[in-house]
Amino acid sequence: MSSFYFRKGENLYEATASTVGPWDPRLQHGSPVAALLASRLDKEGARVAYFSLDFFGPVPVAEMEVTTSIDRPGKKIEMRSAIASVDGKPRVRATAWLLQTSEGRNPSVRLDEPVPPMPETAASTYFESVPRFGYGDALEWRFAEGSFTSIGPAAVWSRLRVDIVEGEAVSPVSRALAMVDSANGISAELDVRAYLFVPVNLTVSLTRTPEGEWVGMRAETSLSSEGVGTTRARLFDARGTVGQALQTLYVEKR
């Protein structure tokens, strides 16, 4: 497929096979949904600096209605939200703080941390015993540390091979969000064939606008023994750090 979604109407979007996650061909991965909702919250002269996504349940590969609202209007600081519904049932809610930006308003501080080198070859396989899936193939993945099949922290570069919405330009923020909900998958600390990791939410703070087609992250997961975990990720591009992400996980045996 050439995109995650086809636009079917003013607020309607048809999910394609490129949104399919690794565990059920009937369900979307969270990253395409995050990228779509962020793209519906744009504002001229401002950008998404904070983005949160709450999952109300699995998101089917189906037609979605996306509704948006301005929850806290403002010239310099504004909050907007979006809800994606399937068959009239809300499945995902996104909330974003949009901040007015102006280059040179203040010095850049602590964004020049070195980034891992870009590997020359892309990953050719995904999780063991898991067939290829649409979302995995929709991005190119190049691991600087770890892999899909290894346990522990990982660092990966990625770039989109598809549009978010067919025929629409991809914003830098959506480009980053198209990758970031996979952080818990690449940094799993237990065998993904034996344990289930369900992200209940995702929060992303973007200090700087990502530049270029490649966006990367270094992710690590922490788990308690009571079935709760967190995944933290540093986001970067070729220039350095662009932000941070955090996921909260529900964990249990399959």
Write the layout of secondary structure elements.
Layout (H helix, E strand, L loop, with lengths): L2 E5 L4 E4 L14 H10 L6 E10 L7 E10 L4 E10 L2 E12 L33 H5 E7 L8 E7 L2 E3 L6 H9 L2 H4 L8 E12 L8 E9 L4 E10 L2 E14 L1
Parallel strand pairs: 1-9
Antiparallel strand pairs: 1-2, 2-4, 3-6, 3-10, 4-5, 5-6, 7-8, 8-11, 10-13, 11-12, 12-13
Which homologous superfamily in CATH is the superfamily? Acyl-CoA thioesterase, double hotdog domain
Number of strands: 13
Determine the strand fraction and express it as a percent band: 35-45%
Question: Given the helix and strand composition, which structural class is it?
Answer: mainly beta
Widest beta sheet: strand line-up: 7-8-11-12-13-10-3-6-5-4-2-1-9
Largest sheet: 13 strands, mixed
Name the helix and strand elements from N-terminus to C-terminus, one letter apiece: EEHEEEEHEEEHHEEEE
The overall pLDDT, averaged over residues, is: 94
CATH secondary-structure class: Mainly Beta
The number of distinct structural domains comes to 1
Label the CATH architecture.
Beta Barrel
If you consult CATH, what is the topology?
Porin
Over the alpha carbons, how many angstroms does the gyration radius reach? 17 Å
